[in-house]
Amino acid sequence: MKYRPLYIAATGQHMGKTTVALGLVRYLQDRGIDAGFMKPVGQSYVVIDGEKVDEDAVLIHETFHYTERMKMMSPIAVERGFTETHIFARDSHLLRKQVEDAHRQLSADKEAMIIEGTGHAGVGSCFGLSNADVAQVLGCKALVVSGGGIGRPIDEIALSASLFGTRGVPTLGAVLNKVLPDKLEKVQRVVAAGLNNMGMRLLGVAPYIDRLTHPTLTQLVQHLGLEVLSAGEGLATRAKHNIVAAMEPEHMTRYLTDHTLVITPGDRTDNIEVCLASHQSEGPPQLAGFVLTGGLVPPPAMMEHLARSGLPVLLSQDDTYTVSSRIRELVFKIEATDLDKIQAAQEMVCSHVDVDYILQSL
C-alpha cells in the first residue's frame, strides 16, 4: 500500500488551508481512501482534557469522527512564551521528535495523510520547525493556498515554493481562494499563465463565499464575552450584516436587511422600537438580533416587547464603537457545529480544485 502525505501550506494566515483540508479529506474518503489528518504546529488552540489542541484539529477530528486522541493530531501548540523559550533552549530536535512520533502513530494504518501547516511557509523557523522543515521531516509534497488577486499571489506563491525547495520538498501547485466571483475567470486565466511561466501549476481558483464568514450569535457571545439577556428563538441564527443604530430612527431603517445584527446603546429605545416594528412587519427584513451596548438594559416594558419578538438580545459592557469594531475585526473560523459551512466548504473544494490531479500526483 502506497502511503501518500500532502502538506497544505499557505502564503499567510486565514487563506483557507482548513477549507481545503475539509474538502480533500472528504474527497479521499468518498473514494475509499483511508485518509488521516494532523496539524503539527498550531497557533490557535483550545484546552481539551487538560491538553492544548489546535482548533482546526478539533474541527477535523469531530467532522470525520476520528478515534485517535486529539492531541496526537496536534502535537505542538504555540502558547505565550513558547517561541522565546525554545529560541534559548535550542531543542528543535525534541520538537521534531514530537511531530515525527505523532505522525508515525497516525499514519500507521492510513493510505494518505492531509497535513495542515500554520501561517506562511516560514512560520516556525524561529524554533526550528518552519512549514518547510515539517514537510521535509514528514516526507510530504506541498500544496500552497493563497488569496485572490494576480501579481501578489503569484509572488507569494513563488516565495513559498522557493522555501520548500530549499528543503527538497516538491510543490504540486497552488490554489487561490476567496476570489471575487466576477473576477474568477480573469484570475484563473492570468494566474495560471503567470505560474506556468515559473514552471508551476494552478490547481484551482475558489470563489469568495460570503456565508462562510457569517458568525452565529453563539459565536459572538463566546468571542466578545456578551451576556445573554434573552435567547429568543435561539442563538444559532447567523448574523450576515450588522448596523450601528445610533442615528435617528427615520434614517436607520434603510440599512436594515435580512439577518442584520443591530448594535445600539441599550437606552436608545426609539431605535429598538423601529427595528422591532420592521422585523415584525410582513416580509423582509427579518433581523438576526440585538447587541445592546454600554451595559444599558432597556426598561422592563421594552424587555418584554423584545422577548415577545423572538429575537436574541445580547448585552455588552463596552461602548457601541468598541463592539462594532471588534466584530468587524474578528475572523470566525469554521467550527464543528457549522454543518452548513462544512458542507459548503467541501462542495467548493470538489467543484473548484483539481482534486484528481492532486491525488494522482501524490
List keywords for this structure.
362 residues, alpha/beta, Rossmann fold, Udp-n-acetylmuramoylalanyl-d-glutamate--2,6- Diaminopimelate Ligase, Chain: A, domain 1, 6-stranded parallel beta sheet, 5-stranded mixed beta sheet, 15 strands
What is the topology?
Blueprint: E1 4-10, H1 17-30, E2 35-38, E3 41-42, E4 45-48, E5 51-54, H2 55-63, H3 70-73, E6 76-77, H4 82-89, H5 92-107, E7 112-116, H6 131-137, E8 141-146, H7 151-166, E9 171-179, H8 184-197, E10 202-207, H9 217-224, E11 227-230, E12 241-244, H10 249-252, E13 260-265, H11 269-280, E14 289-293, H12 300-309, E15 313-315, H13 320-329, H14 339-352, H15 355-361
Parallel strand pairs: 1-7, 1-8, 2-7, 3-6, 8-9, 9-10, 12-13, 13-14, 14-15
Antiparallel strand pairs: 4-5, 11-15
